[in-house]
UniProtKB/TrEMBL annotation, chain A:
Protein name, UniProt field: Alpha-ketoacid dehydrogenase subunit beta
Cofactor: thiamine diphosphate
Domain Transketolase-like pyrimidine-binding: start-end pairs: 6-181
SMART domains: Transket_pyr
Origin: domain of life: Bacteria
Keywords: Oxidoreductase, Thiamine pyrophosphate
Species of origin: Luteipulveratus flavus
Length: 329, 395
């Protein structure tokens, strides 16, 4: 074991660096990713070390970024593109939905788009409009895309490398409000990644109820589990890590053991990941369930101004409220 | 057949710093005042606008100067309020006052402005109370003013989106027959604002295509402040925005964005033409972002202080003041009075900001739809009940 204490941001940065060292075809593109290192400094130092050919400050146009990344893929490169904030991915929506997701199938398997689209997402940072969105459901809904998200520095480091190694396009969601969270990361090359890119992780095992969550809400759910334990309630916390595909066995096993499930995410609940998970769980665990699957998420309104966000986003109280309701059912 | 290629590639005229002087707008740039405020001779580029400048009175000049000073003060107050934790973010217009005041003053009340997020000076000229701009940066709303009150649209943060809205609005003006009637109070046009970085965006380019095809009464006002966060011009375009206008089928003009007389004259000519039914113009105001991109940014990471120093010498307020002093258009008493007024406005803004109430939480469910929506209505009720459940519970 070779461990390092890293922030989640540094884990991503180190993961990118490792992937660039391993494969000269890996190139980074995005707005301000060069000298500035991105507005969150995730690409800090990489242009200096790998040059302007491999870390490209692009013109300010997201459709352009993703569209040209497709062309680079066709020419044998593995572009990792940065979308500066969640709310700025939409100019690229057409390229992602119409082209990125479908190219492999349209070419009957001849063409591959080994592209990673990095999106810092979620709220809780007091930002202005368009800087706090959780739009993962749009992409998870789209066949042909893989969608993943990390919740700690270790996953940041390993999942980034796995995503880049994937021959399918991967949307990589980064929980921006957790960028500065620290943790021990085992960076031992020979041991490799502790989990596959599309495996879920059981972060805490309990007996009464399973919280199914991902990204920035993993920490919130672990805190809820801690609080619940103090009240004698034992919670399992499943960190999905992969939103498409879902690691069904891990989720279903956990729910079968506890008989109750609450899905937690920042995104609005209507047609969000929670809807899919609730459907899946009721279908596969029907006879194990003691209560309906509940969802805790953002309300079904556009992401509100920041003075509202504390009440808009799921927090410990709202998670506990759902836990209580499930247990009381 | 000759060996000459039929299409010649342009030499890039926009190159990395060091390879060309990014503080020099070149000979095409329309300019009336030099950095000290001396009135420049008529030359090929400013000649078409000389008449407009000649028609300005000393009173007009004083009014422009007042606007410059007041918007700088409004901006400084916004910046200070952010530093003191009263605002979450502030994008400063420092250095771009003349570009914005020139454009803003060229608009008539019936003309409509579509700003980005840095157009506090245009807002001022359109009569928007500066206090109204603070809400979105304080996080109490996402805009929060009624655009139709002052014909000043909400700020748009997603780069480029508003350019299409501006073109569409101008198409509406055309359909209303409010162009080319010769009625000064009826004919209207639109001004659309974005930055140098914005010119790369698809929406921007589509807006120019649509405006050209419709010959719509819209003026695209690009503030080229040399930077798009950390990216300099040469990472956004090979040919500067004003030269690209021709490719969309309408004229482009580069103006000295730190010269309020030039900015006003070029904007007025373009807006007059648009209102008269002559179609769009693109104005590139050559200027500089003196501060950080926003209060979240650290420009020392990507640009050198020497560049900022050169631009400081081109300060728009110093220049206009120099012009007025040299020509005896204003005395010390006037300048002092403007400063005093700036102090008053700053105090007023500060007070308004500090007193801005936090919105009632359930109002986040308001105005999502025009007609009631059952999901939103149910969630609002649940939200209220949920919060009521904590009352008296020690939370
Ligand atoms: C579609 C979109 N992508 C990215 C951003 C993030 N962003 C905000 S401002 C900015 C740079 C804008 O530069 P420019 O157009 O020159 O305007 P300036 O800020 O210099 O006034 C970027 C990349 C955004 N707001 N919208
Ligand atoms: Mg700019």
């Amino acid at each position: 074991m070779t461990t390092q204490k890293l922030t989640l941001a540094k884990g991503l940065n180190s993961g990118l660096r490792a992937a660039m060292e391993a494969d000269p075809k890996v190139v980074l593109m995005g707005e301000d990713v060069g000298k500035l290192g991105g507005v969150f400094r995730i690409t800090e130092g990489l242009q200096k070390d790998f040059g302007e050919d491999r870390v490209i400050d692009t013109p300010l146009a997201e459709s352009g970024i993703v569209g040209t990344a497709i062309g680079l893929c066709l020419r044998g490169y593995r572009p990792v593109v940065e979308i500066q904030f969640d709310g700025f991915v939409y100019p690229a929506f057409d390229q992602i939905i119409s082209q990125v997701s479908k190219m492999h199938a349209r070419s009957l398997g001849a063409l591959r788009l080994p592209m990673v689209i990095r999106i810092p997402y979620g709220g809780g940072i007091g930002a202005v409009e368009h800087h706090s969105e959780s739009n993962e459901a749009y992409f998870a809904h789209t066949a042909g895309l893989r969608v993943v998200t990390c919740s700690d520095p270790g996953d940041a480091y390993w999942m980034m490398q796995q995503a880049i190694a994937s021959d399918d396009p991967v949307i990589f969601y980064e929980p921006k409000r957790r960028y500065h969270e620290r943790g021990e990361v085992d960076i031992d090359e020979t041991a490799g990644a502790p989990l596959g890119l599309h495996q879920a992780a059981v972060r805490r095992e309990g007996t009464d109820l399973t919280l199914v969550t991902y990204g920035p809400m993993v920490k919130t759910c672990l805190q809820a589990a801690e609080a619940a334990a103090a009240e004698g309630i034992s919670l399992t916390v499943v960190d999905l890590r992969s939103l498409s595909p879902l690691d069904r066995p891990t989720v279903l096993d956990a729910v079968k053991k506890t008989g109750r499930a609450v899905v937690v995410h920042e995104a609005s609940t209507f047609l969000g990941m929670g809807a899919e998970l609730a459907a899946l769980i009721q279908q596969e665990c029907f006879y194990h369930l003691e209560a309906p699957v509940l969802r805790v998420g953002g309300y079904n309104i556009p992401y509100p101004p920041s003075r509202f966000e504390e009440e808009f986003l799921p927090n410990l109280d709202r998670v506990m409220d759902a836990v209580d309701r499930s247990l009381a059912f | 057949m000759s060996d000459e290629p039929t299409v010649r590639h342009h030499e890039s005229v926009v190159t990395p710093a060091g390879e060309h002087d990014i503080t020099d707008g070149g000979p095409d740039m329309v300019q009336f005042l030099d950095a000290e405020g001396n009135r420049l001779e008529t030359n090929e580029s400013n000649a078409p606008y000389a008449e407009i400048v000649e028609a300005l009175t000393a009173e007009d000049g004083r009014a422009m100067y007042r606007d410059l000073v007041l918007v700088r003060r409004v901006d400084a107050e916004g910046h200070a309020l952010q530093r003191q934790g009263e605002l979450g973010l502030w994008p400063s217009l420092l250095g771009q006052e003349a570009a914005q005041v020139g454009a803003g003053r060229a608009m008539r009340p019936q003309d409509y402005a579509f700003p980005g997020y840095r157009e506090h000076g245009v807002a001022w000229c359109k009569g928007v109370p500066p206090e109204n701009l603070l809400g979105m940066f304080r996080g109490v709303n996402n805009g929060g003013w009624d655009s139709n009150e002052n014909n000043f649209h909400l700020y748009t943060i997603v780069i480029g989106n508003q350019m299409l809205h501006a073109t569409g609005y101008a198409m509406g003006i055309q359909r209303d027959g409010a162009v080319g009637t010769g009625d000064e109070s009826r004919d209207a046009a639109v001004m659309a604002f974005t930055g140098d970085g914005g010119t790369a965006q698809g929406d921007y380019n589509e807006a120019l295509v649509f405006a050209g095809v419709a010959n719509a009464p819209v003026v695209f006002f690009v503030q080229n402040n040399q930077w798009a966060i950390s990216e300099p011009n040469y990472k956004q375009f090979r040919i500067p925005p004003y030269l690209r206008a021709r490719g969309f089928g309408f004229p482009g003009v580069r103006v000295d964005g730190n010269d309020v007389l030039a900015s006003y004259a070029v904007s007025k000519a373009a807006m007059d033409a648009a209102r008269a039914g002559q179609g769009p113009t693109l104005i590139e105001a050559f200027t500089y972002r003196m501060g950080a991109h926003t209060t979240s940014d650290d420009p020392t990471k990507y640009r050198i202080a020497a560049e900022v120093d050169i631009w400081r010498e081109k300060d728009p307020i110093k220049r206009m003041r120099g012009f007025m002093e040299k020509n005896g258009h204003a005395d010390q008493e006037f300048f002092d009075a403007v400063d005093a007024e700036a102090d008053e406005i700053a105090a007023r803004i500060r007070k308004a900001c500090q007193e801005m109430p936090n919105p009632e939480l359930p109002t986040m469910f308001d105005n999502i739809y025009v007609d009631e929506h059952p999901v939103v209505a149910a969630e609002r009720d649940e939200f209220v009940a949920y919060h009521a459940s904590f009352e008296g519970a020690g939370h």
